[in-house]
Write a structure and sequence with these properties.
Number of helices: 11
CATH class of the largest domain: Alpha Beta
CATH superfamily of the largest domain: Histidine kinase-like ATPase, C-terminal domain
Largest sheet: 8 strands, mixed
CATH topology of the largest domain: Heat Shock Protein 90
Distance between the termini: 64 Å
Oligomer: single chain
Number of domains: 2
CATH architecture of the largest domain: 2-Layer Sandwich
Bound molecules: adenosine-5'-diphosphate, magnesium ion
């Protein structure tokens, strides 16, 4: 079973950023409103995620590390979702099979909690009492310490850090209601406070995309025939570096999509100059029934039922907004 975990791990655990993505998703699933991430050496040496979610009880803690142990399948529809999403209930098992993992959790205000640890080939998860405020901390050390072949695919500390940072930024722009901090090698990188008002959201966008973006950004909010597009766009001249400042969400989920990027690029090129990459943080909201998000669980893809409609709505809305400031 350990070998199977290591094989499965290849799908979920590619690098520190993918570990962090899985851990943060678990924290959000647990209802966390505060996420504190600490990494060392780009996450290769250490990844620690602490949340204030509902925590895991003593009996469930060892189970959480077992393969196919998910607390999230309740109904028949969920099983269908699993069929489409593929592996689920495997992230923690996979991570613990290729790293040294310690998970501490408490469900109680008293701070009484429990801790399990698992280490690569060591299948035995040890359960001991431990103090922890209500919530969960997952501490992952020495990623791929027992799979040198996989470790070889890791890039430099800087590159892995950048991917972690991208993951955090992408998440932070989809959950304004959650406080998020990131520390790297003991130094603060992000300290993002929760708040869903316009001012607070713009403060966060500015923290993530830089003040130059926010100062030059045009706020848009357009709604037509069941589709809503809102967010901020800025003239390409202000984008620090290319794809760095392109965030697009469909129903709260970060995606990359050809239909979307084509519509956005065309609108910018039409109104402004050609050849530069636009900078934007945009949210498209539409009836969930008219978009299929389960194309692939880890790639950020969607399939629109009516991609023509979506394309024309995006192009039209952005074109009008940009033209209104640049006639
Ligand atoms: P999945 O998220 O698909 O269920 P995981 O391997 O990621 O599978 O997690 C296994 C289980 O461990 C989850 O279903 C959940 O019950 C529990 N769990 C993991 N992380 C947390 C967390 N941060 N807070 C509370 N429960 C958690
Ligand atoms: Mg999970």
């Amino acid at each position: 079973p350990r070998l199977a975990n290591q094989i499965a791990a290849g799908e979920v655990v590619e690098r520190p950023a993918s570990v962090i993505k899985e851990l943060l998703e678990n924290s959000l699933d647990a209802g966390a409103t505060r996420l504190d991430v600490e990494i060392e050496n780009g996450g290769i040496k250490r990844i620690k995620v602490r949340d204030n979610g509902r925590g895991i009880g003593r009996e469930d803690l060892p189970l959480a590390l077992a393969r196919h142990a998910t607390s999230k399948i309740h109904a028949l529809e969920d099983l269908e979702a699993v069929a489409t999403l593929g592996f689920r209930g495997e992230a923690l098992a996979s991570i613990s099979s290729v790293a040294r993992l310690v998970m501490t959790s408490s469900r109680e205000d008293s701070g009484k909690g429990w801790q399990v640890s698992a280490e690569g080939r060591d299948m035995q998860a040890q359960l001991v009492p431990a103090a922890h405020p209500r919530g969960t901390t997952v501490d992952v050390r020495d990623l791929f310490f027992n799979t040198p072949a996989r470790r070889k695919f890791l890039r430099t500390e800087k590159t892995e850090f950048n991917r972690v940072d991208d993951t955090i930024k992408r998440l932070a722009l989809s959950r304004f209601d959650v406080s998020i901090t990131l520390r790297h090698n003991g130094k603060g990188v992000h300290n993002l406070r929760a708040g869903s008002g316009r001012v607070e959201m713009e403060r966060r966008v500015s923290q993530i995309c830089g003040p130059a973006f926010m100062q030059n950004a045009l706020h848009i909010d357009v709604e037509r025939s069941g589709l809503r597009l809102w967010g901020w766009v800025a003239e390409p001249a202000f984008s620090r570096s290319q794809a760095d400042l392109q965030f697009f969400y469909v129903n709260g989920r970060a995606i990359r999509d050809k239909v979307v990027s084509h519509a956005v690029r065309r609108a910018f090129a039409d109104v402004l100059y050609h050849g530069r990459h636009p900078a934007f943080v945009l949210y498209l909201e539409l009836d969930p029934a008219s978009v299929d998000v389960n194309v692939h669980p880890t790639k950020h893809e969607v399939r629109f039922r009516d991609s023509r409609l979506v394309h024309d709505f995006l192009f039209g809305s952005l074109h009008r907004a940009l033209a209104s400031v640049r006639p």
